[in-house]
Amino acid sequence: MRERLYRGIALAGVAAASIFAAAPVLAQEVQSDRAVPDGEIVVTATKRAESLQSVPISVSAIGGDTLAKARVGSVDSLVTKVANLQLTSIVGDNTPIFALRGVSMSDYSLNQSSPVATYYDEVYKGNFAFLGVTMFDLERVEVLRGPQGTLYGKNTTGGAVNIIANSAKLGETSGYFSAGYGNYDRFDLNGAVNVPLGEKAALRIAGTYARADGWFKNVVPGKPDLASTDEYAIRGTLNFEASDTVRFVLRASTSYQNPQNYGIYAQPEDVNRPGLDRWEIASNIATKRKARTYSVALTSNFDVSDTLTVTSITSWDKGNLFFYEDTDGTASQLLEIPYTDRATQFAQDLRLTSDTGGPFDFILGAYFNREKVYNETAFEIGKDIDLTGDNIVTADDCVEGLTNEDGSDDGIACLFRNRFDQVKKSYAIYSDLKYQVTDAVTLRGGLRYTHDTGRQSGFRSDALGVDGSEVANLIPLSSLSYSQDNLSGKIGLDYKLADGNLLYASVSRGYRAPSFNAQAFFDPSELSVAKPEQVTSYEVGAKTQFLDRRITLNVAGFYYDYRNQQFINVDPVLGSQTLLNIPKSRIYGGEAELTIRASDRLTLHSGMGVLATKIQRGSVSGVDVSGNRLSNAPTFTFNATIDLTLVDGDMGKLSVHPDVAYQSSQFFEVLNIPRLRQTSYALVGGHIDWESADGRFNASVWGKNLSNKFYFTSRVDLLAGFGFDYNHIGNPRTYGVTVGAKF
C-alpha cells in the first residue's frame, strides 16, 4: 500500500510536495567573476561559474564546511545527503558503486567503470584503484543527475559526482587544524595550511589521518575485528598566476589505506552464524586491505581574448588495490576470494570557452583517456576439505574435486585463479552551445562524438592446488577487443520568468562503453564483451525562489529509456559468472529540493526523490525478468537537516544540526528474490557545534546512525550452490567529539 502511495506522489508531480518534504543541501558560497546575487550558491557544473539557480539541470551542491561538520569523511556517506543517489558497497568502503536515478552498475569487478562518473577537480577517476581517500579540505561536492557528455571528459549514462578541493589562495597565510576522538577508539586528524609565494603564487598543503578499531567483532580467538579504519592522505596545490591572462593550478596527492577488511554477514543465521549477534562475525581471514593512490594534475587557463579562454587539464593517476575477502563470512574455508587491481591512467581534456556577454556562447572540447589495468582474482573453494582421506589437504584433493565419480565438477579443494591485462582508450570531441533567443528564452544544445577501443589480453584461468601448484588450465591464453563509435548529445530550452525563476526542458542521450568480463573462471564460454549501454533522458524542471529568496524550491521530473544495461549474471549453483546486457528498461520519477530560511537562526533543508523502474525486456540466469524492478532503485528517498542557532554572543555561537535520511524498500538484484529485499529504513544523526566569537576555535559533538539501525548495503544469492546468502551491512552507531582551531 505504501509503495503504491509513493508511486502516486511521483505521478502527481514532485512540485506538489509538502514544504517539509524536500530541500537542497546547500553549498558554501564561492567566489566568482560572474555577477550573481549576494548569498547565492555558485557551482561549476556547466564548466562555468554560475548561480545554482541559473543552471538548467538537476544538480545538488554540498559545501565543504557542511560536509566536514556532518562527518562526511568518505564518498559513501553522500547517499544520505543527495536525493535519488544510492550505492552498493560490495567492494568495500571508499570504493562505492553509485546508482543515480536507478542507473547503476551490477558488476563488482575491479576492471569496470561506473555509469555514474567520479571526478576529482575535473579529473575523471574511472577505476576503483584511483579513488582512495579524498573527502578532506573540500570546497564543495556537486552531484549532477542524468546523462553527461557535452560538458564532461567522460561520456556517462547515469550522472557525475564532482569532488572539488580547496585551492591555494593568493596573498593569504591561513590554515586550520582539528582533532577528533570517537567510539571504537577512533582518532582523526585534519588540517591545511595556505602560504603565499610572492604576489602571484600560493601553496596549500592539506592532509587527513584516521584510525579506528573494527566494529565487526571477530569471535575467533587470535583474529582481529573486521571493518576497521586506518588511512591517511595528503594533497598539495600550487596556484600560479603568471599574468592577467595565464593561470596554472598544479595538484599532487597520495593516499593509503590499510585497515582490516570488511566482513560478510552470511544468511541464514542459524546455519552460518549460530550464537552470534548482529555485530559479531567468526572469520578466519586476518589479511589487511591495502589501497594506495598517486595523482598529479595540471590545470592551465589561457585567456586568448576578452571573450575566449582555453583550458587544459592534464592528469596522471596510479593506484593499487588488494583485499582478501572472507566470502562465506564464517571460520570455515568454504569460499574466499583475494582481489588484486593495479591501474594507471593518463588523461587530457582541452576546451575553448566563450563568454561574449552576447546572445551566443559555446564550449568546444577534445578529450583523451588511456587506462591500463591488471586484474587477478581467485575463487578459493573448500581449502580445508580433505577429499582423498589422507588427513592432509594437497593438490591431489583439487584433482579429486575437479572430477566426481559421476563425472561432474564441483571444484572443492581448488583455487580458481584468473588474471589479465586490460587497456582502454577513449577519444572524444564535444560541444555545448547556448543561444539567448529573447531575454526570457534560451536554446541549448550539444553534441559529442566518442571513439572507444579496448583490449583484454593475456587472459587465462587455472585450477590450482592449495599449495599454488597448477592442476588444470581451464581457460587457455585468450584475448578480446572492441572498437566502438558513438554520437550522443543534448538539446534543451530554458524560460526565465519575470520574477527571475527558471523553467527548463531537455532531451539528452548518454553512452557507456563496452566492457570485458573479469569473472570468467571455469570455461572459455564465460569470456565475453558486453555491448555499450545507452540512456535517453527526457527531463523538465524548475528553479524557484520566494519571499525575498527565503524559500528556494527546485524540482525536476524525468523519463529514461534505458537500453542494454551491462549486468553481471551469477549462477547461484555453480558460482560461474557471465557479463550480459538487459535489452530494455524504463525509469521515471523526480526530485524536489527545498530550503527554508525561517530566520537568521533557523534554516531547514531537505531533499526528496521518487523512482519507478521496470525491466521491459531481459533474461538473467535463464529467468525472464520482464516486469521486475531494477537494482539499487528504492521508490522513495528523503533527507532533512535542521540548522538551529541557540546562542550567538560574546561566548560564541552554539548551534544544533539534527538530520535524517530515509529510503523505501529496494532490491540489490533484478530477479527480485523476496528474501533478499531490503526493507525501508531511516538513519538518524546530527551534530552540536560551538564556535568562538572571533571564529578561531570550534568544537563539535557528532553522531551517525544513532538508533543503531541494522540494514544491508548489498546482497547476492549463493544459497543453492554454497549454502548462504552473501550480504554487506551498514555501519553501526558511531559518535565522537572534534575540536579545532583556525588561523
TrEMBL record:
Domain TonB-dependent receptor plug: 52-160
Database matches in SUPFAM superfamilies: Porins (SSF56935)
Domain of life: Bacteria
Annotated motif TonB C-terminal box, positions: 726-743
Entry keywords, A to Z: Cell outer membrane, Ion transport, Iron, Iron transport, Membrane, Receptor, Signal, TonB box, Transmembrane, Transmembrane beta strand, Transport
Gene3D superfamilies: TonB-dependent receptor, beta-barrel domain
GO cellular component terms given for this protein: cell outer membrane
PROSITE patterns: TONB_DEPENDENT_REC_2 (PS01156), TONB_DEPENDENT_REC_3 (PS52016)
BP-aspect Gene Ontology terms: iron ion transport
Signal peptide: 1-27
Keyword Transport part of the UniProt annotation: yes
Membrane topology of the entry: Multi-pass membrane protein
Subcellular location per the Swiss-Prot or TrEMBL entry: Cell outer membrane
UniProt family annotation: Belongs to the TonB-dependent receptor family.
Name the UniProt record assigns to this protein: TonB-dependent receptor
Organism: Novosphingobium aromaticivorans (strain ATCC 700278 / DSM 12444 / CCUG 56034 / CIP 105152 / NBRC 16084 / F199)
